[in-house]
Amino acid sequence: MKEPHLAALKCPKCGKKLSLNGSNAPLSEIEEGEIVCEKGHIWTVTNGIPSLVHPSITEEDAKWIADYDEMAENYDELVKEYDEWLSVNMMKERENFSHFIPIEGSARIIDVSVGTGANFMALHNRYKGKMGRFNLHGMDLSTGMLKVSNAKFTKNKLSVSLTHANVFNIPYLPDFFDIVLHSGGINTFSDIPGALNELLRIAKPGGFIIVVDEGVSPQKRETDEGKAIMKANTLFAAKPPLEDVPDKAKDVEVTYVMNETFYQIVFRK
What's 53-268's CATH class? Predict the structure, then answer.
C-alpha cells in the first residue's frame, strides 16, 4: 500500500483522514498492518489491500458476494463462454471505455467492482507502454476477486491500488476521479440508487460515470435470439435503471453494447 492510495481514502465510518497505525516504516513497504482515522477507527491491511467495509453487508448482498468468492479462480474462463454464446469479443469491447479517457495528460480512474481486473487489463492492451499516465484504483467487496485481480496486476506489472469496500459507502474522497467505471454487478445490488449516488459523489465535476450490466436491447428482446438469451439467464432481462440515476447527473445517455446484450449508462457530474 502506497501513500497516494492512502491519501485518496477516507474512513467509511466518519469520513476522516486515514494514516498508518503503530508503524514508522515507509508506507510503500506496508503489506500487512493497520490504518487508523483521526477518530480512532482502525482498519486492517492485508497483502497491501485495506479493508474498509462499513456498514456490514445485507444478507442479500452477502449471498452474491459468496457466489463471486466461490467462482473467482475460474471466473475468467466462465466469462469466455459469453464470447461464443453472445457472439462477442468481451475483452476487445472492454477497450471501448478508453473513448472517455482524455487524449493527453493524467487521469484518475476507478473500477468499482473490479472483479478479476478485466477492464484494466483491456486498458493495458489498448495503451501498451503508455499506462504510466493513469492513476488506477480498483474496489470490490469480494476478497476472492481482489486476490485474483491483485495477482494478475502483479504478474503484468500493472500498478493498481486495490481496496476492499462496499459500493454503498465508497471510502474514497469526493470529487476525486476523472472516470468512475462499474460493470457487471449493479443488477444484483440491493440499493441501486444508493450505489449510483456514491459513483457520482467520487467523480470530479465534469467526470464520466460509466455503468454496464446485462440487459438485452429493446430491439433484440423481440428476436428469437434475444428471447433465448433472456430465458437462459434472467439477468439479461434487466433494463437500465434510469429511474435510479441521481437527479444531479448530467448528459445521461443509454446505449447497448456487447452485441446489444448489455446496457451502458453514461452520465457526467
Answer: alpha beta
Label each residue of the chain as H, E or C.
CCHHHHHHECCCCCCCCEEECCCCCCHHHCCCEEEEECCCCEEEEECCEEECCCCCCCHHHHHHHHHHHHHHHHHHHHHHHHHHHHCCCHHHHHHHHHHHCCCCCCEEEEEECCCCCHHHHHHHHHHHHHHHHEEEEEEECCHHHHHHHHHHHHHCCCCEEEEECECCECCECCCCEEEEEEECCHHHCCCHHHHHHHHHHCEEEEEEEEEEEECCCHHHHCCHHHHHHHHHCHHHHCCCCHHHCCCCCEEEEEEEECCCCEEEEEEEC
Q: Report whether 151 contacts 123 (CB < 8 A).
A: no
- pLDDT average, residue stretch 7-20: 94
Per-chain mean pLDDT for the chain? 94
Confidence of residue 128 (pLDDT cuts 50, 70, 90): confident
Say whether pLDDT at 23 is over 90.
no
pTM of the model: 0.95
Domain boundaries, the chain: 1-52, 53-268
Nearest partner of 1 among 137, 106, 155, judged by Cα: 137
